[in-house]
Amino acid sequence: MTEAPVPYAARPRPVLSPTQLNRLARGLLEDALSMVWVEGEVSNLTRASSGHWYFTLKDAQAQIRCAMFKSNNLNVRTRPTDGAQVLVRGRVSLYEARGDYQLICEHMEEAGQGRLMREYEALKAKLQAEGLTDAANKRSLPRFPRRIAVITSPQGAAIRDVLAVLARRWPLLQVDIFPAQVQGAEAPAQLRAALAHALAAPTAFDLILLTRGGGSLEDLAAFNDEALARAIAASPVPTVSAIGHEVDFTIADLVADLRAPTPSAAAELITPSAQQLQSRLGELTALARRLLARRFQTFQQSADHCERLLRAHDPRRALALARARSAHQQQQLLQAVQRRLRLLQQRHAVFGESLRANSLSARIARRLERNSALGHRLTAYASRLHLAPREALRQLRQRVLLQLPDMRERRRRLDAAMSHLQQLGPPSTLGRGYVLLLDASGQLVTRAAATAPGQTLTARFADGDRVIRVLENP
User: Fold this and answer.
1) pLDDT of 121 above 80
2) Is 0.70 topped by the overall pTM?
3) How far apart are CA 132 and CA 122, in angstroms?
4) Where is 341: in which H helix or E strand?
5) pLDDT higher for 277 or 125?
6) How much is the mean pLDDT over the chain?
7) Is the dihedral of CA 74, 76, 82, 87 positive or negative?
8) What kind of fold does domain 18-111 have according to CATH?
9) Beta strands in 189-290 (DSSP E)
């Protein structure tokens, strides 16, 4: 059985307000097209007092309203004008108040510049991966270059600036210019050829400078050539790159040994300042003069000292001093001989007296007298040595006899104590029928309460030990 169809007019119909419909459409657009890139021509550009930009982006068949708020357009490098071809990145949205479909732009650049920038970033990443841009591979520049090669356009303002700075800072420098186009389709090949000619010169250059003035990314594209970058990196001569202004960066800047922000700055960096060197030489000259004056004063003082030494060591003065010392030494020698003579005379008199006192008869008499005295002393000592031991032995025997009764009494008391101790000792007690009970740890059991049923004890009798077990309490 089928139900009858509901008439169309009777079906429930959702009704939306314009605000709801626009909000729904806005959500669908922002979800489906969250971020897009669009290239087109700018028209009807309006810069509001708030700082926001409102314009139309169009091509030959269609157009779209665009808005770029102040927080985003502050980062735009080149301000757009009506008729400018630009590339924008943004999200598609809808202005609910009027129901206008629009593109909210977050980034803007000149058309064509985006492709060049992407190619620049890709080549930069490739060369970095190969290590051609590593700072460790950069070579230092010569401090006092004598001959350099400049690769640039001979008609450009850059070469005039470079030559003016070089002439001012280091007039002794020889500069060879290798002309080449610095812009256009043929520029990369000419730049490579000029670099090859500079490297093949009969006399080697101290360094090579590649330079040109400022310009757009398209104008500087010749210096983003991969073959030129590899030739710069492989150059055996140190290279300096000065392309455009300070904000301009090219691949040649990355692979060169030194990147200068401007051509004039490059000339400043690669040459010493003659004025500064002259000032430094003046300082060194003044220092050398001060050192020489100080050295001269030192030598003069040394000469004066030597002159004083010569005067002090005049041979005539030395001869007079030697004569005076000789006379003084002669006087001292005469006095020493006289003292020695008197000393010998005194010793001769003493020896004579000693000889008379030590005659043979006097010596024999003194020896007999001394022998007699020694005999008397020996007799007395022998008498004392014979009687002393007997007296000491007699005194010791008397002390022993006096202590003998006391020693007997002590022996009797010791025997009685030993007998009493044996009667009271454990073996005597066990012999009278007593038994000692010991637990498992060897401790003496003295109370029944200290035992438990089933406990194993050791019973010690007079003739040995027995193991017993405690039964149930009665």
Assistant:
1) yes
2) no
3) 14
4) helix 315-357
5) 125
6) 83
7) negative
8) OB fold (Dihydrolipoamide Acetyltransferase, E2P) (2.40.50)
9) 207-212, 239-243, 258-259
Q: Categorize the per-residue pLDDT at 1 as very low, low, confident or very high, splitting at 50, 70 and 90.
A: very low
Contact predicate 200/168, CB 8 Å:
no
pLDDT at 282 over 90: no
**How far, in Å, CA of 419 to CA of 430, rounded?**
17
How far apart CA 263 and CA 269 sit, in angstroms, is 10
Sorted by where each begins, the domain ranges of the chain are 18-111, 116-272, 276-309, 430-469
Q: What is the pLDDT of residues 91-116, one digit of tens each?
A: 888 888 888 888 999 998 877 666 67
Contacts of 102 (CB under 8 A, 6+ apart): 64, 65, 66, 67, 92, 93, 94, 95
Q: Tens digit of pLDDT for each residue in 161-208?
A: 899 998 888 888 899 999 999 988 899 999 999 999 999 999 899 999
Please write down the HEC assignment for all residues of 389-403: HHHHHHHHHHHHHHH
pLDDT at 195: 93
Q: Looking at domain 116-272, what is its CATH homologous superfamily?
A: Succinyl-CoA synthetase domains (3.40.50.261)
DSSP 270: H
Query: Tokens 């590899």 map to which residue?
Result: 230
Nearest CA to 197 among 188, 208, 187?
208
Other residues' Cβ atoms within 10 Å of the Cβ of residue 255 = 26
- Phi/psi region, residue 51 (left: phi>0; alpha: psi -120 to 50; beta: rest), is left
CA–CA gap between residue 262 and residue 164 (Å, rounded): 14
474 pLDDT above the threshold of 60? no
Helices (runs of H) and strands (runs of E) counted in the chain: 12, 13
CA–chain centroid gap for 143, Å, is 31
Distance CA(187)–CA(136), nearest Å, equals 30
Q: For a pLDDT cut of 90, what percent of the chain falls above it?
A: 23
- What are the C-alpha distances in Å from 55 to residues 113, 114, 128? 20, 20, 40
Contacts of 187 by beta carbon, 8 Å cutoff, 6+ apart = 180, 181, 222
- What are the tens digits of pLDDT across the range 364-397? 777 778 777 777 777 777 666 666 666 777 777 7
